[in-house]
Amino acid sequence: MTEDESAAGRRGPTGSGRTDRRGGDRLPSLDYARPKYPHNIHPALVPGIGIDDQRRLYHVDKIVFGAAGVLTVAFVIWGIVDPASVGTVADAAYGWTMSHLGWMFNAVATVVLVAMIILSLSRYGKIPLGKDGEKPEFSTFSWVAMLFAAGLGIGVMFWGPAEPLTYFLSPPPLTNEAESVEAMHYAMAQTYYHWGFHAWAMYALVGGAVAYAAYRRGRSLLMSSIFQHLFGKRRTEGWAGQLVDTFAIIATLFGTAAALGIAALQIGQGVVIVSGASELTNTVLLLVIAVLAVGFVISAVSGVSRGIRYLSSFNIVLTIGFTGLVFLLGPTLFLLNLLPSGVMEYVGSLFDLMARSASWGQETLDFQSAWTVYYWAWWISWSPFVGIFIARISRGRSIRQFVLGVILIPSSLLFIAYGIMGGTAISMYREGGLGVIEEVNAPEVLFSIVDNLPFASVMPLLIMVILAIFFITAADSASVVMGILTTRGSFDPPKVLVVFWGLVMAGIAVVMLLLGNESALQGLQSLVIVTAVPFALVMLLIVVAWFRELRTDPHTLRQQYAEAAVSNAVVDGVDKYDDDFSLQVVRAEPGEGAGAGVDSTHADYTEWYQRTDEHGEPVGYDFETGEWADGWTPETEEDDSASTSPEVTDTPSRREDTP
Prior knowledge:
The structure is a single chain. The model is unreliable at 1-30 and 641-659 (pLDDT under 50). Strands 1-2 form a two-stranded antiparallel ribbon. The longest helix is centred in the N-terminal third of the chain and has 39 residues, at 83-121. A hairpin with a 4-residue loop joins strand 1 and strand 2 (627-628). The chain has helices at residues 3-11, 62-81, 83-121, 140-151, 154-169, 181-195, 197-215, 228-231, 233-236, 239-275, 282-301, 305-329, 332-355, 362-392, 399-430, 442-450, 459-486, 495-515, 520-550, 554-577, 603-606, 634-641; strands at 621-622, 627-628. Helix 5 crosses helix 16, helix 10 (239-275) crosses helix 16 (442-450) and helix 13 crosses helix 15. The chain contains 22 helices and two strands.
């Protein structure tokens, strides 16, 4: 290398002392013409774009609202006017789905878990869910606490004691003898399988993809935002994106309605026990849902959303406290032995559990239909709701931290909670405390447990309070999320819209419960599975879309350039100078440098960071100073929004009390 070449290498490709972050050279170059990049910045140097850095107008998407609203309202009216015909159609759709698509739900659950593990361990795991250098919005302790909150819900109270007891009394086909020691441990493993890693991998996929699109690429908190790179901006903001958001709303409506229906079932059972009534009737269920729906409407229109957050947090404390009481007042020593054994049985049986399918026979197919496929469909339905919540609290964390945290932290909590509830139910049954059980009635099991504990007269009331708060807060939060999906991403959707979705959700819960023949749970399960089919396909597309977009991330580009540059330099250095060489940045011939295999001017790399105004028109922007060419600032938008139509809402960054 000549002295002139060495000096040129130290100065950079243009002969200047440095190249600034925006790509603008201090001195013009006579021998190098920089390609035309948006805002004169190379895609590898873009620090990322946050959702609150963008300019957009929020309004009700009439197509999404009309399609989802008309379909679901029509279903509620049909179900109330003629539940028999709805039941016939639902049964036929459910039977066809299980016969032809049951495998798909198992495949989706497995593919998503494997994809999330690969993602977290790959080079993409270091990419932040935010801009370069952005610190996490919440401390690790607060983030973990909120993930715990996301993991706790109606399931701990309803299925926690009932599901393991069911598997203990009636083990899954081709496993163990009923009521044996082996059946007890396998019952815990089967429960953990349904509520553990697979479930939270689905939430991690949706939440991570939404967080990446919003906090790294500057898009709205919409399910459709994930697909901009896959579908193209025009289709994503058009019919394809509207179809995805409509599927997300319908899946969320039915999935959340199922949870609300389960809460109503158990509250109704508590009312029967406390009042001394003979049985739980549809009239009691409808009355419970009506009262709780009134509570939801009051919470939605009162503007006390921050109070709802505190109430939700208080409810989590009550749930943990209740579980702790069961642990301390119940068979504590037995539980201390069962908890680690159940977890190890789950880990050891994981591949066996994943291998179960219709090929194992009709009995296995029936079991899968009633349990495993139902759970996969339920988690798929809940993924837009829970995904947006965990996306909101995870800004600034790396993909690796996010994925592993979301999968492992809530799962570990559920292993403990379900181990305590399920283990207590099994222990009490073995000791005769629950009497003779021919068939497990899920709403009754928890009340039967507390009847054998101290403070038996107070416990049912505490259970009903916890369930009622869960119903109201879940309906409130889920309705806000559906309002976000209906208003193109507004964090402050109109209260009328929020109330509408909440009432539709309650109506669907009523129809689901009325459809149940032998058991109200049948109606819940069949409709959740059928309505989750479209979004199950969306889940697979999310995997493809997210991985494809990560390939063009600035962090990925820099890593790709670094690997190529270092590899080429080391080979060249050893070849020329043996051990005595060092690395310098010098101008390479076109097609021979670190980015030889990358067309950095391609729209896949550059289109996403072209800044636009509120109407989608390109506008100048300085990435170094954060200044807009037309002088726009967030304060300007605040002034403008005060005089705009009611459809236009504030920017997301000013809404801090939504999920």
